[in-house]
Structures are given as structure tokens and as C-alpha cells.
Amino acid sequence: MTVNSAHSDALRFHACLLSENGSPPVIHPRELDETVQLFLIDELERWSDGLLHQLLDVVGVRSPGPRPDAGLPAGAAVRLLATAPYEVREWLSPHSFAPDRAAAVFVRTVVEARRDLRRITSARLLAHSARRTQLLAHLELLATLAVVIRPVMPGWSGLVAEHLGMPRDAHWPPTAAGHRLFVPDAPLRTGLLAYFVVPVSPPSG
Q1: How far apart are CA 126 and CA 163, in angstroms?
Q2: pTM for the whole thing?
């Protein structure tokens, strides 16, 4: 991924946040910088890369499939999976296009997911099996968000797909019952932390 693709993703996402009734907003460089640093780097990248680091510690270098006898656990990631992707997809669809609402749902979802990942990290008494299944729920949430936000941030979406062994044109929801977007036994690796580059704002007056 190039700096240009990261900057284009950031610009489109920031424009979605500011959009009103689908009208193109006025972009101020300093506000764009804040979106990049405070959300795209401090929340989105720290959640996604932190998740992959934890998965490498818990499940090893390859992504496991869910065990046949165990579904995803109850928790924040599962609850978010049940609503947020549908909302983002709906607000980016032609018949109800509202990019500001799609971006707002995406922000709320990532912020809550990162908060929950910190809870998992700090839960010293959490059993290994429980930690594993909760992290897998986060992995599915990351994969799903990457697919539904692709029209806005295709570069970031492609980077996530590459890291999870997913096809870049993956569709959601999956057609097969019980199927997960991420590919079982695909190599897991970190590297989602340094994609976005803070645009340089011009000096003030």
C-alpha cells in the first residue's frame, strides 16, 4: 500500500464524516489530520493490529476455524457483528445513501471494539479457551468491517484482506451457513499499525 492510497482512504472517510445529505463537505487540513490521528491511527489501527498481536500469542501463526462444537461467544464483538455491518452497508447503499451515518456507525463500532479488546487483554483470569473464542469474534468483526467499508477505504480494506488471507473482492454476508469471512489456516501476521500517514497541515497565518 502506498502513502497516496492511505491518504485517499483517509480523505474519503473524513469527507463521509462531514457529509450532510450526500453533499460534498469543505475539507480543512487540520480537521483531516485530527480524523487520521485520533480515529484512524489511535483507534482503528491500534485495535486491528493489537488484535493480530494477541491472536498470534493465543492461536499461533495461522488463523483457526471455529470449533464445530462451539459458536462465537456472547460479548461485545458478537453484539456488534449483529448490527453494525448491516447499518454501514445500508447507509452506503444507493437507495438510502447517507455516508455520514455509515462513517458514524463505523467509528462507534471500532471505538467499542477497541475498548473490549483492552478488557480481554487485562482479564488475567480469563480462561485460554474463552480468550481464544472472544478474539476470534473480534477477528470476524474486523474482517466484516473491512468488507462493508470497502467503498470508502478500499486500500485499508485490501490490506486487511491480505493479512487475513481473504480475497480482496470478498462479499458479506457469506453465502454458506456458518462460514466465516477470514480463511481458516491462513497465515496471521501483524503490520496494520503503520498504514495511515498523518497529512501535513499548512502552517497557520
Answers
A1: 27
A2: 0.85
